[in-house]
Amino acid sequence: MLLSHAAGANCGREPQRGAADASFSRSLELPCSKVFVGGLSSETEERDLTQYFGAHGDLIDVYCKPGRGFGFVTFRDRAGTRSLLRGCVRV
Fold it and tell me: For FRET with 49, which of 18, 23, 76, 82 sits at 20 to 30 Å CA-CA?
C-alpha cells in the first residue's frame, strides 16, 4: 500500500492563488489532513478504508471507487496522520 500525505488538502477551504511559499505555509495551518492510499486491491471498498484508517483517528471523509486501485482518507486533525505514519516502515 502506498501512502502520500497532503497537509490541509481539501479541508473545506478554497486554495489561495499566489506564491508557492504562501500556499505551503497556509497548508501547515489547516487542522485536517488528507492521505492518498495507492496500490489497493480491486475489491477494496470505502468501508474497508474506514475500518483500517479509523483505528488511527477520526475520519471526516473517505473516497474509494472499487477497481480503481487508489483512494483518499481525510483525518479530522493531524493526530490521525501522525498515528498512521508511526506504523509505516521508512526505507
Answer: 23
Q: pLDDT tens digits for 4-27?
A: 555 544 454 444 444 454 544 444
List the end-to-end C-alpha distance of the chain, in Å, as a whole number.
Answer: 14
Q: Please state whether the predicted TM-score (pTM) of the whole model is above 0.70.
A: no
> 2-86 in CATH: which number?
3.30.70.330
Domain range summary for the chain, segments of one domain joined by +: 2-86
| 59-64 vs 2-7, strand pairing mode | unpaired
